Amino acid sequence: MSKRKGKARSGSSQDQIIQIDEAQIRSHLDEMVRSTVEGMLNGLLDAEAERLVGAGRYERSAERQDTRAGHYERNFDMKVGRIKLKMPKLRKLLFETSIIERYKRRESSVEEALIEMYLAGVSVRRVEDITEALWGARVSSGTVSNLNKKIYEQIESWRNRPLEGFYPFVYLDGIWLKRSWGGSVENVSVLVGIGVNEDGYREIIGVVEGLKEDKESWKNFLRHLKDRGLKGVRLVISDKSLGLVESIHEFYPEAKWQRCVVHYYRNVFRLAPRGKVKEVAAMLKAIHAQEDRKAAREKAC
């Protein structure tokens, strides 16, 4: 009886001995890695400063080019935590290091990731959680907001840039996208203009948000393009939106209009039996592939 109790006590004691606090060990290892990397990088920075100066700290040497002037701290975020880099300051020479260049590239890629997450509809709170999980440091909502302001300024600058040169051919169309607004998802119309310049290259010349694809929205868009310098327009290609077609000649009276072939095909496909769509598509492409109108009419017949 006593033996059984002794074994039981022994087994219980053994269970307690082999229990491991995994979180504590991981935290301890992270701290070891963090402190090791911090010491190594700061040692490399000191060595690089000594190489530039031409002498060690407090060393008297004929080869000395400069003297140290203390240091300043710079944070470096890693998965295991934030380390502090002690950046040497020199009195005359400019201290540059490849470590900082790598940090700048990393910082830039992190900013791009944050902006992409926000534009993809990820909430600011969720962005904070993701950054803490990935990089060991939480990015504040203020940082995310500042990054968004920066990218919006760049977008607005691009949207309102002057249009130089001539664009003989202009494609106009509206696309519908979903937008998160006040906790709900709404459809929003985005009006897009693509111009073909004199060298034959296509370029997005305008993007604006429209309440809907009506005449007033298209007039505002065309006025926006004209005010920015759109000129030399000979042909405008679009769908058969009456508000759009009517607005074109108000701003570019000498330009001709052509119905977009893709939109025309889609209109035809709606009237064709589902089983005949591929056959109808092949016929339409064969007609449009002809060299002139006479040949196209013959092909159609």
Radius of gyration: 33 Å
As a percent range, the share of strand residues is 15-25%
Please, what is the average pLDDT?
Answer: 77
Helical fraction equals 40-55%
Q: How would you describe the shape?
A: elongated
Q: How would you spell out the order of helices and strands?
A: HHEEHHHEEEHEHEHHH
Count of distinct strands: 7
Main sheet characteristics: 5 strands, mixed
Number of helices: 10
Question: What low-confidence regions span 5 or more consecutive residues with pLDDT below 50?
Answer: 1-14
N-to-C terminal Cα separation, in Å? Answer: 107 Å
Based on helices, strands and strand pairing, what is the structural class?
A: alpha/beta
What spatial order of strands do you see in the largest sheet? 5-4-3-6-7
List the defining traits of the structure above.
301 residues, 10 helices, 7 strands, five-stranded mixed β-sheet, elongated, single chain, alpha/beta, disordered N terminus
Can you put this structure into words, describing what you see?
This protein is an alpha/beta fold and 301 residues long. Helix content is 52%, strand content 21%. The protein contains 10 helices and 7 strands. It has a 5-stranded mixed beta sheet with strand order 5-4-3-6-7. A hairpin with a 2-residue loop joins strand 3 (169-181) and strand 4. It is elongated and about 95 Å long.
Give the structure's gist in a few sentences.
The chain has 301 residues and is of the alpha/beta class. The protein has helices at residues 2-18, 22-53, 98-119, 124-135, 141-159, 215-227, 242-251, 261-271, 277-288, 293-300, and strands at residues 68-78, 81-90, 169-181, 184-196, 202-210, 235-238, 256-259. It starts with a helix and ends with a helix.
